[in-house]
Amino acid sequence: MATAQRGVTIWFTGLSGSGKSTIARALEAELRQRGCQLEVLDGDIVRTNLTKGLGFSKEDRDENIRRIGFVAHLLTRNGVVVLVSAISPYREARDTVRDRIGDFVEVFVDAPLNICEDRDVKGLYKKARAGEIKQFTGIDDPYEAPLNPEVHCHTDQQSVEESVAQVIDKLEAMGYLAAAAVV
Ligand SMILES: Nc1ncnc2c1ncn2[C@@H]1O[C@H](COP(=O)(O)OS(=O)(=O)O)[C@@H](OP(=O)(O)O)[C@H]1O
Ligand SMILES: Nc1ncnc2c1ncn2[C@@H]1O[C@H](COP(=O)(O)OP(=O)(O)O)[C@@H](O)[C@H]1O
């Protein structure tokens, strides 16, 4: 009989443009190749579906994270590997979902604000600097960095592939993935 896959939530947190979605997508491809059953809950997609209507006040962000955490928990306890990508700027909200889910790997996707701003993938930093968007994380809204994440990726200093390898190594070390066979 095949061994059941252990569920786990891999939670990517970091500033807008730090690389959460990029790393999550690359990790998704790698895990699918290994035959993992997985689900991706990406910030933007979640916000147009599960948490449509919520804004960016602390209260709304916390509610956003609570709902994502709820779904991630359901999936995780049924053996799914869940990739969550959300700024999730408040430590307390992240720690609450960590406690609830249990099988939880926090990945701090870390790049200095000026690098994220230079990347400005969606042009939102420019708008935030111009005052067209309020409560923008890192500009006029807080980001509380994780104190003890399972994985810390410095995306201004390492490639996407290196970040993916770092997460895979941690998943293997924690017993969520069998180490790939060396041929
Ligand atoms: N005020 C403000 N602050 C931060 N981000 C903003 C804001 N307004 C819109 N956006 C866009 O929304 C994406 C962040 O949504 P999240 O659900 O990840 O945010 S949170 O976890 O609830 O804080 C974020 O996506 P990413 O760039 O992928 O992080 C932005 O594109
Ligand atoms: N080492 C790196 N790791 C991750 N992303 C990187 C890296 N170097 C450059 N980038 C780029 O930075 C941008 C990050 O955007 P995205 O993944 O959407 O961030 P987030 O989901 O955190 O908002 C992408 O355009 C990506 O190609």
Q: Outline of this structure?
A:
By secondary structure, the protein is an alpha/beta fold. 43% of the residues lie in helices and 15% in strands. It has one domain: Rossmann fold.
Which ligands does the model contain, each kind named once?
A: 3'-phosphate-adenosine-5'-phosphate sulfate, adenosine-5'-diphosphate
CATH fold name:
Rossmann fold
- Please list the strands of the largest sheet in the order they lie side by side: 2-3-1-4-5
Helical residues, percent: 40-55%
Q: Kindly state the mean pLDDT as a whole number? A: 95
CATH superfamily: P-loop containing nucleotide triphosphate hydrolases
- Overall CATH architecture: 3-Layer(aba) Sandwich
Give the helix tally. Answer: 7
Q: Give me the count of strands.
A: 5
Q: Low-confidence parts lasting 5 or more residues at pLDDT below 50?
A: none
* Assembly state: single chain
User: Which structural class should the secondary elements be placed in?
Assistant: alpha/beta
Q: What percentage of amino acids are in beta strands?
A: 5-15%
Terminal Cα span = 25 Å
| Gyration radius, in Å | 16 Å
CATH class equals Alpha Beta
Protein name: Adenylyl-sulfate kinase
GO cellular component, one term: cytoplasm
Active site: 88
Organism: Phormidium tenue NIES-30
Blueprint (SSEs and pairs):
Layout: E1 8-13, H1 20-33, E2 38-42, H2 43-48, H3 58-77, E3 81-85, H4 91-101, E4 104-110, H5 113-119, H6 124-129, E5 151-154, H7 160-173
Parallel strand pairs: 1-3, 1-4, 2-3, 4-5
Helix pairs in contact: 1-7, 3-4
Active site: 88 (phosphoserine intermediate)
Domain APS kinase: 6-153
Organism: Phormidium tenue NIES-30
